[in-house]
Amino acid sequence: MRYLTILGEQKAIPAYPHHKDYVYRSYQFFEARSLFSLLFINGIYDALKRKWQQWRHKYSIPLNLLIDPTSACNLRCTGCWAADYDKKSELSFEKLDEVLTDARRLGINSIVFSGGEPMMRKDDILKLCRKHNKMPYTMFTNGTLIDEAFADEMAVLGNLNAFISIEGFREATDFRRGVGTYDKVLAAMDILKKRDIGFGFSVCYHSKNWKEISSDEFLDFLREKGAWIGWMFNYIPVGSGADLSLCLNAAERAEVKQRIETYMQKHRFTIIDFANMGHMAFGCVAAGNEFVHINANGDLEPCSFFHYSDVNINDMPLPEALASHFFRHFRKAKPFSQNPHRPCPIMDAPEMLQYLSEAKGVHSTHLNSPESMQQLAEKTKALAAAWKPVADDLYNNMPEKEKKKIDLFKKYLLYKEKLT
Fold this sequence. Notes:
Elements: E1 2-6, E2 9-13, H1 19-30, H2 35-39, H3 44-57, E3 64-67, H4 93-106, E4 110-113, H5 122-131, E5 137-141, H6 148-157, E6 160-165, H7 170-177, H8 181-194, E7 200-205, H9 210-213, H10 216-225, E8 229-234, H11 250-267, E9 271-273, H12 278-281, E10 291-294, E11 300-301, E12 308-309, H13 318-321, H14 325-332, H15 353-356, E13 363-364, H16 373-396, H17 400-419
Parallel strand pairs: 3-4, 3-10, 4-5, 5-6, 6-7, 7-8, 8-9
Antiparallel strand pairs: 1-2, 10-11, 12-13
Helix pairs in contact: 5-6, 11-16
C-alpha cells in the first residue's frame, strides 16, 4: 500500500483508478531519489512501452499532455493570457477522442485539461474520462462551475482530479478574478472535500500577492480546506499587452522559493513551484521532454506559456505532430542553462529565444496579441539578468550529492534525446 502524509496523518493511496493516485504520482516525480524511481513512476510496463514508442518514432514521448478543450471562460482574470484568446476556439469532441486514443498508444500517461475554462465543456470531459479510463486526468479550473452533481461523477470515475485556482484570500482572489469568485472557489473545495477527493490548488503569484500566497497562514488554510497538492505559477508576461509590473523581482522570487521549500519540508506536502523547481524537474521539461501543450486552436506548443508552434493537430494526427521540426530544434538547445535554477528560456535564459526563433515554420500562436520571440526576450532579459547571480549562488551552495543527482538525471534526458 502507498501512503502520503496529509495534515500530519498517513493517508492510504488506493490503487488506480483513484483521484489520489494523480497526487501520489506527482509526489513521486518531484521527490525522485534515483534514476530508477524517475523512470518507473507509472510502473515498469508503462515505462517500457514509452521507451519502445520513443525508439519506434525516433522522437521524445512526453509523460504529460496538457490540452485546452476550449478557449471560452466564464471569468476574465486580470493578467491572464487566456483572456486574450478568441472565445470561440475549441477542439471538437472527435479530435479530442482521437488525440487521447493516440496518446494512450504512444505511452503518454497523464492528461491535463486547461483553457480557457475546461468546465465549460464538462459533459465532454466526463465522456472522455469514461471512454479512455486507462489514463489519469486532472484539470486546471477556476472552480466556479463545480457543483454537487459533477463532483459525484468525479467520485464515481476515480480517474479525474482538479487543481482549483485561487489568488490568495478574498481580496487578492476577487481583485484578479472578479467579486464573488473567492466564495465560489471555497464552495467548490467544500464539495470535493465532502467526497474525500484529494484535489489540488493552483496559484498564479505576482508582485501584488506573493507574500500572502507563500505564507504559512494561507497554505495551512488550503490544506485544511482539503487540498492534497499545489501548483504555484509565477506570472509570465506572455502576449504583447502583458503587464510587466506584475513580474516579481529577483529578491521576491528567491523569497517565494525559500518559503515554499521550507513549508514543503516541514509538512511533507508537495507544492510544484513552476519558476523555482528546475533543480527538481531536472531542467526545462517542455517540447516533449515530459510535457507538451495543445491549445484550443489545435497548435502543438512546447508548454502552456510558450506560444509558438509549427504544427497543428487539426492538420495531422498526434504521432505525426510530435515529430515537429520546432520541437526537435527546441530540445536540441537544452539545457538552456547549466544551472538548474535557470531552466526557462523565457524567464531565465531569454538569450536563447533568438536561436529558438530560427526553427523553420515556427510562428506565434498567441491569438489576439501575438509577439515575436525577440519582443518577448526584450521584456524578460532584465529580469533574467537580475536572477542569474541569485541562481548561481543557489547552485553553488547546493550539497555535492544533490548536484551529482541532478547531473545524472540531466545526462539521462540528454542521452534520451540523442537516441531520438
